Amino acid sequence: MVRCFLIHTVCPVSALGAGESRLLYSRLFGPDEGIFSDRERGLSPEERRLVQKERIAVVARQVRSAISLSREASARVLGETVPGEEALALQEADSGVVRLRAGDPFSEEMSALWLGVQSLGFTLVCEPHENLLLAESTLRNLARHCLEHLHMLGQGSEVLLRSNRVDALLSRLLPHGQLLFLNHRFAQALEKEVAAYMAK
Amino acid sequence: MYSHGAESLIKQAREIQESELQKFYSRLVKLLQGKELGHETVDSLQRLHLILSATKYTRMLPPELQKKVQSLLSSPKEHFQVLSSAVLRETLPLSGQEGNYNQENLSQLNSHAAALLLSQAGSRADLSSLCAQLLRSLESRQSEGPAHSLTHTLPILNTILTLSPECLTADHVTLLSKKLVDWLRYASITQGGGASSGGFFTGPRSRQPVPTAELDGAVSGDFFTVLCVGQGFTEDQWMNVYSFSMLRHWLLTYHSVSSGNGTADTANRLQLSLSLSYSFSNDDRSEVDGSVVSMVSATSSSGRLLPPKERLREKSFQYCLRLIEQSDRKAHKKTDTDLQKACLVEAVCILDCVCEEDASLVFRAFPCIKALFGRLSSDLSFARVLLPIAQFYLNHGEMAAVDCESVWKLVFGRFPAELFNDHFLAHELLRFLRLNLKSLQCRVPHYTRSFPNLLKFLAWDSPAVVDDFVDLLPSLVTAGTAVELLHTLLDLPCLSATLVLQVRSTCLPISDPGGHGLQSPDAYRNPSFRGLFLFLLRGDAGSGDTIDRLSTLHELLAETTDWPRVVQCAQTVPLLLHIFFNTVIPGADEKLLSHLILVMLERSSLLLNIPEYSKEIHRVFSSHLLRFCKLHPSLVVDQSHELLEFAGAITNVYSKEEIYTHVVWVLGEFLSVSCDSRCSVRLITSCFEALEAVLFEITSSVPPPGADCPAPRVVTTLMSALAKLASRSHDLIPRVSLFLSKLRTLTRGGSVAWCSDEEDLVAIVTRGEELWSLLKAPGVAQSVLTPPPHVTTPQWHRDTNVAMPLRLRALTSLTHSQ
């Protein structure tokens, strides 16, 4: 099961400290794991929400540092692609996986898959026994749709103002965090539904 | 991509004034009261979502607004479902509204409303009720819902059982097992959605059902799976996809071996499966099952005889075998090829899981797995599929008496050597090692000698995998290979540079016209230096601890010391060295420890010249040298020759201050008869003379060009060491005293060439005076500077003769009796 899907910055943001990451979209799946832990059971709902937000902030920060170290090591030159070149942007994107130890920040060990498209990162946090090949291709697919439907290569802020599109996309391709084995026909059928939603 | 506009939007959302917010709320309420909800409403709801989600502190909505938004959850237009669910997830439910998990209308839940319920669940009980409701609706569903109105049921159940498997009762598990069997094995094999085989002129009546196809275009010959395609799909084919997607997790949760399957069951099943019958499924869906059958179905055991859990296991088994067969076909699209790989991984993992549960399945599964391994082992692009196969071999290979050598050769040989730069493979392979450490150490004797290969993952991408190596390194430390491992760890940055050169040389043409003026790629290709690089790139330990021409190698790689990969790798080495030493020390004998000391002394000057690297390594060496000697003081006498050689070299004072200080300290402290009876007067005297010479030298002349003044700590440590040695051999005392008084006279004149800071000089002189006055009373000096063991390891509370309470009592009774 995928625990969360994030879209966040991986470039320096002036309003934030170095190494911090601005979350543009976050979606946690399933019930809050805090209700099962003894330590967090006594928390009020507001406190629980706070803990959740902090948790995903930690994930975003860790992924950001992993991406910047990886880019530094491979000495990549980030190309500037313009709207319309989504496929190219995706091809040039770098990807990897971060091991999140148990307790840091989820109670169990997790694997955070990331895809770095220029200054933004798409992250999928899933349980380590999950099929990472499938998760990888799902992540790429999600990123492609986000880039296209939200015009993310441009200067607009649709990812913030049209987050319902990402929700709808996730409800088809990653329903409640479930990775799906979709061959091209099934994927096409779902993508048609997504396109119909986006068109309204 | 990330613009100022977005940043300022977030800022606005966070800093919105309360009055403006209330105005916004009331405007929204008005909008929602209208009959027709249009674009403006959507935009406003979206803005509301942004305001709520931009901050981590919860904002509460006015109840009226919240109620209105809640009613949108069941709106016919999906936009409103999505938005209301998103908005409500960012705030808290209205008081009195939590826990509405027992309502009857839960069966009409759409996916987005269900997501909200999930996120608001406050306890296991809530989730149990939700499960119960979902399963009830699954059982008694109406068939007139839209194509996949119930498809979200399985994903929701999957998330619940991820965190809380107890939410499903045994009945639920049985029910769902039955359903899963139906969907997995008995989904329709004709295309849905009105596909027809007729041409343009065929009417509805002449529409014949078209069978589904395989990914390479052939007609499907067996039951439907995720690798079958059609123009459209029926509902149960969708459920087939959703069922398979959660199958492994289901099996892991409810079918794990620890959940009570005894050996009696296994025996029964063994009997059943040995009596192979060719009966097809004569269950609920028997009329659908055609006569076209592939190998998989034909060799299955009769389905009806098994209870639901076991049936699911059997059907999962068949499904996986069919997927493996289907993955051999050449798909037309790349996404399908990728899917085939993912299916292979999943199929092998599920087979592993069911074979754990029912050992009799191993004999049916192994031929297939072996064939798959044979097919894929030579193709490195399938490396990630071969890892689950390796796991299968590890778990079941012994039982099936299969030779696993070729598997391990791949996993420990080719994969690290050739695919070290594949992030995902590295992650998965290291995870495989971590999870199976104990079995690997038993079953794969070669494991502990494969560290040169495994460390290639670390050398290439240290930040990503250092965490895994922190866990794995202890298992790679053995007495036989410890020295070689130490050398390998110290040369990890060199390995890092070499791997970069290797990758570059395969990418760039032989004669690189651009040149960049780099020496190292040429050196890499130069045959006379080939041996050096080949040693670094070796796959197995055992062919030698290190090479003679290390300094040559370091020179050749001198320009790589600022490459980011090399620098990142160098930063992880000190940590790994600490782990190495912590693991080695407890089990090591003196012989090994002596050898390690020699390596430390030798390598302290033989390191790749990365800024700060040497310093960090010296620090690690120093602290562990101390530990060694404290544990086994006789090591100092053993290695006195080498230690003295090190301590007598004046250049070491300037270039390796940290280690030098510790070596001198160790000599002063442990070169005594009480530590080792072999310590002779002659030895003490020769040590004394060596240290004395160094001390004279550094305190009487200017430091050599390019070097700073010696650190004050070095001088004081030398002085203390000399005093300690003198206290053990009293005829040396006059010599020390003479030197110390001379020192005092010399420094009275003010500054000296060898010490730049006045305060430091004062400290040095003070120490000199203390030692001088101490040495005036040799007996006292001896007990202070060479204290007997019972002083250094006090056991006051344990020793009856010196226990504090006893003494106090004695004193009290003495004073009171008077």
Automatic annotation (TrEMBL), chain A:
Q: Name one GO biological process term.
A: endosomal transport
Pfam families the UniProt entry points to:
AP-5_subunit_s1
Source organism of this protein record: Perca fluviatilis
What this protein is called in its record is AP-5 complex subunit sigma-1
Tell me the organism's taxonomic lineage. Answer: Eukaryota, Metazoa, Chordata, Craniata, Vertebrata
Alphabetized InterPro entries for the sequence: AP-5_subunit_s1 (IPR029392)
Question: Any one cellular component term from GO for this entry?
Answer: AP-type membrane coat adaptor complex
From TrEMBL, chain B:
- The residue ranges of the AP-5 complex subunit zeta-1 C-terminal TPR domain are 468-814
Q: What range(s) does the AP-5 complex subunit zeta-1 ARM repeats domain occupy?
A: 339-456
Pfam families the record matches: SPG48, TPR_AP5Z1, TPR_AP5Z1_C
UniProt domain AP-5 complex subunit zeta-1 N-terminal TPR: residue ranges = 1-298
Q: Name one GO cellular component term.
A: AP-5 adaptor complex
- Protein name, per record: AP-5 complex subunit zeta-1
Lineage of this protein's species?
A: Eukaryota, Metazoa, Chordata, Craniata, Vertebrata
